Amino acid sequence: MKQNKYDDDNFFGAYSRMHRSIYGLKAAGEWHELEKLLPDFNGKRVLDIGCGYGWHCVYAAQQGASYVLGTDISEKMLEVAREKNTSPNIEYQKLAMEDIDFADDSFDVVISSLALHYTPDYANVCHRVYKSLASGGSFVFSAEHPIFTAHGSQDWVYGEDGSICHWPVDKYFESGRRETNFLGADVVKYHRTITDYVKGLTEAGFVLTDIVEPMPTEEVLNDDPDMRDELRRPMMILMAGRKA
What we know:
The chain is an alpha/beta fold. Helix content is about 30%, strand content about 30%. Helix 6 runs parallel beside helix 8.
């Protein structure tokens, strides 16, 4: 069974209280860089994999997309997404990313925000995305950075006084399953090296067009002081590929 923590009431409640869950894209520390990687949406058919609350779906529609499909494995996420928008050209579907199987030339743009580190089948997902895209189509995604996922604890090492010492990095080249605690729950994530992420795209047929390790803006840092620790190590990696 594919992992779906987000339909657990306690986990979903904790997620819904996160800064980015409340305030959307403007509270996402990576958004100012991710937006730069996105292509022109005007008249495009868009797929959002692991759409969550649907923030990126709404953005695509506002930018002129002709059709937007948001997919997610969580029914609770999709319920919120449907409540938050009434745009006639956005549709939502309960679907695991590993089960994506759309016809060739179904979409012009595929996006995914912080979802791909939950699947053991990243390379397979890349192949499925490639198949669904029209020639020249774009695949843009964010995921947890390999430095962030390598050790598995996903927490700082603290000194005796409780202050942060450093971020642990271990078993970097051992790609695979990591068991961690996120929002008070045991969650399985999948660590990959930067090489893994790049090869997943290129071996599926994509031309890598950009890669970014984003830092939060001063505006985000001022709104959420806890984000300042994100300047000490990368938390996310952003990548963009084009179907040749």
